């Protein structure tokens, strides 16, 4: 038994050599940080030389390193301020106002896509215009015939650029409003804005005073000729209700008034009141 255990635990000369090498490597790895610290000598900074160099730099640049590198400071040195209308302003005049080529390219791209400035604060919404740029330029902006305090937007004719002039309405909300307006055929009243995804009561209260609605601009639905696919876009009707309207028309002929739609069981009075302003019986 002892002989078997001894044979099991015994090591060959090759195995002993391998273990010895492994132990030496472990000791070497552990010792490296201490050897490095012992060999390395930190360079001591000469405080007097550093102070002298800093004083020389400040003398050459009184504003300091940060002021020298600051884009705002560099722009102040080249900015020439004058009264201007930002709509269709030539690039060379934007340049005189202190804007970079990249900023001017963004402004011209905005114009090319139909963007316009309706009030002073619109400039601040342009990507690339810094807060410092806006504060410097805002007092000099003059937009003919536009007083921001009296700005009232007609909801059924406004484009996305004009909608973004509303307080609290950015490009995302403007896009949603226009998309919903297209599905409806136009707004009959301002309260319908609360049906736009993400536009809650608080946001509505913030913008309702800046809006008006011309209900005569809504797009009517020719209920006796419209197809299923087009009627399906009306947000007040679901799939089954649209199908029921088309099927009832196929079975009973053209609709002559809202009273005919009342015969469709799955369309209640609330839905009828919502769609009534949009219906036409040609």
Automatic annotation (TrEMBL):
<feature type="transmembrane region" description="Helical">
    <location>
        <begin position="16"/>
        <end position="36"/>
    </location>
</feature>
<keyword id="KW-0812">Transmembrane</keyword>
<keyword id="KW-1133">Transmembrane helix</keyword>
<dbReference type="InterPro" id="IPR051675">
    <property type="entry name" value="Endo/Exo/Phosphatase_dom_1"/>
</dbReference>
<keyword id="KW-0472">Membrane</keyword>
<protein>
    <recommendedName>
        <fullName>Helix-hairpin-helix domain-containing protein</fullName>
    </recommendedName>
</protein>
<dbReference type="InterPro" id="IPR010994">
    <property type="entry name" value="RuvA_2-like"/>
</dbReference>
<dbReference type="Pfam" id="PF12836">
    <property type="entry name" value="HHH_3"/>
</dbReference>
<dbReference type="GO" id="GO:0015627">
    <property type="term" value="C:type II protein secretion system complex"/>
</dbReference>
<dbReference type="GO" id="GO:0015628">
    <property type="term" value="P:protein secretion by the type II secretion system"/>
</dbReference>
């Amino acid at each position: 038994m002892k002989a078997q255990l001894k044979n099991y635990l015994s090591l060959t000369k090759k195995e002993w050599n391998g273990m010895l090498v492994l132990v030496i490597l472990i000791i070497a790895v552990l010792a490296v940080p201490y050897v490095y610290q012992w060999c390395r000598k930190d360079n001591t900074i000469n405080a007097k030389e550093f102070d002298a160099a800093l004083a020389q730099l400040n003398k050459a640049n009184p504003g300091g390193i940060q002021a020298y590198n600051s884009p705002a400071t560099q722009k102040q040195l080249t900015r020439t301020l004058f009264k201007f209308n930002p709509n269709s302003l030539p690039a060379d005049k934007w340049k005189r106002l202190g804007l970079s080529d990249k900023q001017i390219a963004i402004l011209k791209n905005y114009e090319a896509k139909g963007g316009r400035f309706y009030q002073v604060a619109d400039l601040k919404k342009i990507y690339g215009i810094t807060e410092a740029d806006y504060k410097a330029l805002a007092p000099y902006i003059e937009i003919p015939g536009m007083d921001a305090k009296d700005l009232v937007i007609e909801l059924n004719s406004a484009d996305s650029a004009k909608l973004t002039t509303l307080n609290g309405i950015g490009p995302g909300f403007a896009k949603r409003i226009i998309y919903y307006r297209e599905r409806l055929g136009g707004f009959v009243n301002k309260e319908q804005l609360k049906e736009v995804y993400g536009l809650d009561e608080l946001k509505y209260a913030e913008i309702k005073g800046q809006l008006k609605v011309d209900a005569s601009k809504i797009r009517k639905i020719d209920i006796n000729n419209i197809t299923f696919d087009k009627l399906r876009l009306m947000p007040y009707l679901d799939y089954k209700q649209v199908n029921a309207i088309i099927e009832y028309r196929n079975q009973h002929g053209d609709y002559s008034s809202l009273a005919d739609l009342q015969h469709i069981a799955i369309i209640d009075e609330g839905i009828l009141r919502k769609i009534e302003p949009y219906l036409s019986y040609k």
